[in-house]
Amino acid sequence: MIGKIARFRQKFYAVPWCVPAWGRAEFGATAKAIVTGRAVRGTAPGRFAAAVRDYLGVAYALPLNRGRTAIEVGLRAMGIGPGDDVVLPSFICRSVLEAVQGAGANPVFADIDETLNVTVTSVEAALTPKTKCVIVAHLFGTAAPVDEIAARMTPRGIAVMDDAAQALGVRLRGRLVGSFGTCGIVCCGPGKPLAGAAGGVLVTNDKQVYDRAAAVPLGAEGGRDVRRRVRDFWVWRRFRRYTLPFKIMLDRARRLRTEPAHVNAPMSNLDGAVALAQFASIEGHAAARRRNAQLLVDRLASLPGAMITDLAPTAMAVKLIYLLPDGTSVDAVIDSLASHGIEAQGGYGPLHAEHSPEGSLPVTAALWRRVLCVPVETKPPARDSVFGVRDSGRLRSQA
């Protein structure tokens, strides 16, 4: 019994995983959309898309319900479908793969380097005679060389999709990511610069691509699903520091309630309203994450491995990313951080392992098990360094 109580109390993390910076503006937006009965339809999606369009300096922007939807609609708008190959990183969120498959295209995976992004060399190595598009993502707020990749792909007639989901606000040689290539993607979600419950925007300078995207048939999300999604985001994500143990208990009791099946749909008015509030504070939230990250870096000074997150004001830190050395257990580090009140996680699993031998992408295969992600949305309490010499040795011995 005492052990169970101790484990329950440990889940009240001082630094919980990806807690969005939602405050009065987001609460007001939520309340207004629900009270007026405009959770699904309203003007907020169009206003948010226009704000993103003007911010990125592009000609067109289409609001959709998720980043996954924006990717699939963008691919369809570029005429990509069955029989076509799309190159994407193996080290990336599964929803990108699902969008490619949703468009009917064949995914081809590219390797990464120690920034955890694709490179010009790794993209070119993944090209096939059927390649019609390359998706370039900027993981964890670090810019990938999308400009160089686009310069190589465009003369070959290969489209480039600039996925700025995790890096909105990052500049690459003076230009905002998301504005490169044939089209770009911006979306909301936990651990992103725009921490909404859902919502995505497809941006482009190509009127033909925009017109085709706007003509792609879409389904509809029900008002109940939209309201529940945002309500759950408030309860289980915004207040995760206090609600996580109860969520774990509830999920076990109901055996994990199944989420509604994904549907490609327009952005809901409620999600658009929250996204507008987030967008208005994007720079302030970024500065707060950098301050929190620096405090955590100081506390984790003896953590084995290298911190690879760019904390410069020109960057967009969304997590602290460490590459642990060989011989150090990521799970052991996560457990140790949990005992100090920090809820960390590992990185993405390699998507290519499901389709081809893992050794075919050597850097991804070597790095993915060494990635440690530490959240930076919450200011850590003032304490001494988390890791000392004794901790480092213990963690290596548990590998």
Task: Provide a compact summary of the structure.
With 399 residues, the protein is of the alpha/beta class.
Record keyword descriptors for this entry.
single chain; 399 residues; alpha/beta; Aspartate Aminotransferase, domain 2; Aspartate Aminotransferase, domain 1; 7-stranded mixed β-sheet; 4-stranded antiparallel β-sheet; 15 helices
CATH level-3 fold name of the largest domain: Aspartate Aminotransferase, domain 2
Following the backbone from N to C, one meets helices and strands in this order, namely: HHHEHEHEHEHEEEEEHHHHHEEHEHEH
CATH homologous superfamily descriptor of the largest domain: Type I PLP-dependent aspartate aminotransferase-like (Major domain)
Placed side by side, the strands forming the largest sheet appear as 1-9-8-5-4-2-3
Number of helices: 15
Q: Averaging pLDDT over every residue, what do you get?
A: 92
The global form is globular
